[in-house]
Amino acid sequence: MKEKLKSLTAIFYTPILIYFVFYVAISLVAIASATPVARVQYPLGNFVMRQMIFFAIGIVAVLVVLFFELKRLRFIRWGLYFICLILLALVYFVGERYPCIGTQDMLVPCLNGATRWINIPIPGLQFQLQPSEFMRIALILVLADIMQVHNEKFGLDTRTFKSDFWLITKSILVLIVPIYLIYDQPDTGITILILVTTAFMLITAGIKWTYILAAGGIAAAVTVTFLNLVINNPHFLLDNGIIVDHQYVRFVGWFDPFSRISHEGRHLALGLIAMASGGLFGNGFASGAHFFPEAHTDYIFAVIGMDFGMIGSSIVILLNLLFSFTILKTAVLNREHYNNHVCVGIFASLMAQQFWNIGMIVGLLPISGVTLPFISHGGSSVLASMIMLGIILTSHVEGLTIKRSNTVFREDILYLNEKLL
User: Fold this and answer.
1) What's the CA gap between 141 and 395, in Å, rounded?
2) For residue 384, pLDDT beyond 60
3) Would you call 290 helix, strand, or coil by DSSP?
4) What local confidence, expressed as pLDDT, does residue 124 receive?
5) Which residues contact 156 (CB under 8 A, 6 or more apart)?
6) Percent of the chain, pLDDT > 90?
7) Contact predicate 85/177, CB 8 Å
8) Residue 1 or residue 38, greater confidence
9) Pairwise CA distance, residues 338 & 159, whole Å
């Protein structure tokens, strides 16, 4: 136990903890600043206190992961995968349907018809578990093992089309069921995040660039075709169940938000107005200058732009970039090991989530229910992000151990060579 605690002191030699403290501070300040806007829609109480409780639970989860270690998480990866799969299936039977709050005209698009949550009876907290957030982590653990075992069997010099195709096939087989269950909730945002994460992990696992370019070309063609159908033939998508009504409404609002500000484009238009009103320094803490739905959750970045201006927004973006860069450094520290693939997966998942959340608020991407990691209010989002933080920290500790072992090994080889000479 003493040795274990000594090894864990290594986490104090990484800036990740410093970045986390900044995340917590920004999150609590931003949520408090969003309260005048959020209360218009959600008169549920003190969001800041709830977020502090979520962070406290998350810190416990981080400590559990640190003491459990990633090698043990790898051992139970399939168990975690199937637990998350069962929870996703349970959503269909006991899941909480999230209705629109207020008039339909004011809040379109909303989460109407979405069933993604399971109510957890925690007194006074009103916690709703979103299994798809945790399935992202389970999939990263499983896919990382598949890629590590594959790389140990097939080196870069012995890879063929057959071996790469088999790796992609195994990854797809792992994804099919959870992707279907998540997309059918419907939760397009998490679905896309999982696909992007898997693609990035496959790229870094050593798949040949010709296959990557071919897959990228197919993805681009599918995206262009899909958007063309949304614009010119939406009935084809709706009649065949490819998208549902509220997803189509979001695309319509994304294409031209200001001409549809009273209906489909309300979310995006009001968010853009709020961001623009902040200018360089913002309107001030808790200004409540503009109303927009989901101010404390999905649209927390719009609150930061409105109340703290371009300076506040830039600080958040810079913090995200620094945090992501540190995750990549941790991945490099664990190169050629299982931890490397896990870190790459977490980097891709968090980076894609940050890009999507900020992109949808400034109009670069369509609106989806994607939160801003560590900052948005929400129990499942915070807890999932904290578990990822714990995995990165334990990967850092294990990476330093690997580095020391390699250094000692090289020194021993050098010593033996000198003796032989």
Assistant:
1) 13
2) yes
3) coil
4) 58
5) 206
6) 42
7) yes
8) 38
9) 19
User: For the chain, what is the mean pLDDT?
Assistant: 83
Number of domains in the chain: 1
For residue 302, give the nearest of 20, 33, 23 by alpha carbon: 33
Which residue bears the tokens 């801003």? 372
Q: In sequence order, which residues have a C-beta less than 8 Å from that of residue 418 and are 6 or more positions away?
A: none
Average pLDDT rounded to a whole number, residues 356-382 = 90
Cα angle value 37/307/369 (rounded, 5°):
55
What DSSP line would sit under 201-269, residue for residue? HHHHTT--HHHHHHHHHHHHHHHHHHHHHHHH-HHHHHHTTSS-HHHHHHHHHHHSTGGGTTTTTHHHH
Output Rg (C-alpha) for the chain, integer angstroms.
23
3-state secondary structure of 98: strand
Q: Which residue has the tokens 């896990």?
A: 342
Question: In Å, what is the CA distance from 123 to each residue of 127, 175, 256?
Answer: 9, 35, 43
Report pLDDT for 45: 52
Q: Is 120 helix (H, G, I), strand (E, B) or coil?
A: strand
- Residue 13 has φ and ψ, to the nearest 5°, of -105, 20
Contacts of 24 (CB under 8 A, 6+ apart): 55, 374
* Dihedral in degrees, nearest 10, Cα atoms 281, 267, 380, 60: 10
In this prediction, residues 222-234 reach a mean pLDDT of 86
The parent domain of residue 197 ranges over 2-420
Residues 6 or more apart whose Cβ sits within 8 Å of residue 338: 70, 71, 74, 144, 145, 148
- Residue 393 in 3-state DSSP? helix
231 burial (CB, 10 Å; 0-12 / 13-18 / 19+) is exposed
